Every structure is written in structure tokens, then in C-alpha cells.
């Protein structure tokens, strides 16, 4: 069970809705609320009653889609209550909502795009490799399931991009107390590697490829990072202008009523990937 303070730190930085899922003997219990204290109380009560299986808690920072109860994580995968998904990051442009769509990118991904050809094969290392490659290194996904077709009840994609602490997996550092700096703004030295005057125009160090302000990797800055508040937002997608994909995604934006499925390679290609162990990785259950 994560510390309440850790969840509170995350909720403070990600205030746009809080959700949880707990695996029980009867199925997966899911709850959502805009009130963090309410969500925490219910999650804590459930977790104490059902300690045997995995569980997740998610606080949302809106990037795409409306701020609504329907867009609070977790989401049912393929609209089946036996499997749910939560995500941290910004998904590729092919699943981002078009103008006027109210669904978030994660909701589109879980409900409309993660087809059975992929979601029913999470135990296949080749499928996991393809999915993680599509997600990119900064997107993290947790899946909980009670479907007997799966070998496990929990899966973490891009697990190495998160943080394990005391048996709990966190998708980023937002659970930690905010770091207080004695300086105001960029001093000229990268906080990650101590290089001097090595920041590119967007605030990323040319030596270590991390944010000079908070030492995070590109696209994963902490919400308190001065860089997040100093870079203008894209008018189209409301992301930081150096992180949005609007310019490159202009030709693949989907209509409001359409979604673009993720394409798997051919069977032959999957077999080839499965024969390349150095490119695949086995993930353990989530905590």
C-alpha cells in the first residue's frame, strides 16, 4: 500500500481527476472522483479489504480531451470490465483526439484502438516489444486484469521508465516531495550533470539529454519544473511547443468519429522479433 503522502504529492501536481482499481476475488473494483480525499479514502478501505491482488491509483494532469469523469483513469480495455488500463505520458498523434473530440488520448487508446489482436496477447514478448516501441520511451502503461486468458493479473509497459520504491511502482517522480531550489531560474549549470552553458533553446542539456531545470528526460518534466511554465503552449494541442506533434501529425489526424487502430507486424515479423532476445524484455508483475 503506497503512503498517503506520496499519493497526495502526486494529486497536488495532477489535479484533474483521481481514479483507482483494485483486483478482488469478485473482479476489478474501479472508482473515480474529482475529490482526491474521497478517492483516497475509498481506495484505502478497498485495499485493506483486498490485499492479495494488485492495485493501482492514478491522478490525471489533462493534456488531451475534456476534464470530465469519463476521462479519469483507469479505462476498460476494449470496453470489457475484466481488464483496465491507466497511463502516464502523451500518446502518439494517431490516438490523440481531433478538434471537438471529448475523449482523452488514453481513453481512445484503451477503448477504441487497443484491439484484441494485441490486448489478448500481453504475455507474448514480441507483442509487448511492439507495443512498447509504439508507446515510445516516455509513455508508461499499467494493465490490471482478472481475465483467465492472461497468465498474470498485472502488466507494466516501459517499467524501467518508472520508479520502484518499497515495493510500489510509480510512473514518475511526482510522488516525491517537491524539491526546493535556492536559485531562481536557470543558473547556467545543468542540474543533472553539472555541465555549464550546455542547454539548447528548449532547456534540454546537450550533454546528458535531460532537462537542465529538473533532470527529467524530455517530455517527462516534473510539474513544478520552471521549464514547464516558461515554454509557451501550442494553440492546437495545449502541450509545450517543444513536445507537441501537431506539425508532424497534420496528415494523420483522425475525424471526430474515427480512430486509427495500431497495426501489428505480420506473423513472420513477430516470429523474427521473438527470435531476438536482446531486443525483448520480460516484465514482472506490478506491485
Automatic annotation (TrEMBL):
Name under which the protein is recorded: Glutamine amidotransferase type-2 domain-containing protein
Annotated source species: Amycolatopsis albidoflavus
Highest taxon above the source species: Bacteria
Amino acid at each position: 500500500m503506497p503512503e498517503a503522502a506520496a499519493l497526495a504529492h502526486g494529486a497536488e501536481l495532477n489535479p484533474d481527476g483521481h481514479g483507482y482499481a483494485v483486483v478482488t476475488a469478485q473482479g476489478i473494483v474501479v472508482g473515480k472522483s474529482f475529490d482526491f480525499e474521497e478517492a483516497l479514502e475509498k481506495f484505502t478501505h478497498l485495499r485493506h479489504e483486498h490485499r492479495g491482488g494488485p492495485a493501482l491509483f492514478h491522478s490525471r494532469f489533462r493534456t488531451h480531451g475534456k476534464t470530465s469523469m469519463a476521462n479519469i483513469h483507469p479505462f476498460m480495455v476494449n470496453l470489457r470490465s475484466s481488464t483496465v488500463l491507466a497511463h502516464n505520458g502523451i500518446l502518439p498523434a494517431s490516438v490523440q483526439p481531433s478538434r471537438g473530440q471529448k475523449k482523452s488520448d488514453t481513453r481512445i487508446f484503451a477503448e477504441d484502438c487497443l484491439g484484441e489482436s494485441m490486448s489478448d496477447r500481453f504475455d507474448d514478448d514480441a507483442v509487448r516489444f511492439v507495443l512498447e516501441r509504439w508507446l515510445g520511451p516516455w509513455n508508461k502503461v499499467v494493465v490490471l486484469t482478472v481475465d483467465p486468458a492472461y497468465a498474470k493479473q498485472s502488466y507494466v509497459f516501459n517499467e524501467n521508465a518508472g520508479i520502484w520504491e518499497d515495493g510500489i511502482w510509480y510512473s514518475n517522480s511526482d510522488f516525491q516531495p517537491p524539491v526546493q531550489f535556492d536559485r531562481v531560474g536557470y543558473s547556467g549549470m545543468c542540474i543533472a550533470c553539472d555541465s555549464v552553458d550546455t542547454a539548447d533553446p528548449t532547456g534540454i542539456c546537450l550533454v546528458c539529454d535531460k532537462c537542465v531545470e529538473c533532470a527529467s528526460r524530455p517530455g517527462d518534466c516534473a510539474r513544478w519544473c520552471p521549464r514547464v511554465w516558461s515554454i509557451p503552449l501550442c494553440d492546437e494541442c495545449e502541450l509545450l511547443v517543444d513536445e507537441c506533434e501537431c506539425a508532424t501529425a497534420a496528415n494523420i489526424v483522425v475525424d471526430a468519429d474515427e480512430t486509427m487502430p495500431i497495426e501489428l507486424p505480420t506473423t513472420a515479423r513477430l516470429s523474427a522479433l521473438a527470435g531476438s532476445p536482446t531486443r525483448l524484455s520480460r516484465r514482472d508483475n506490478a506491485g
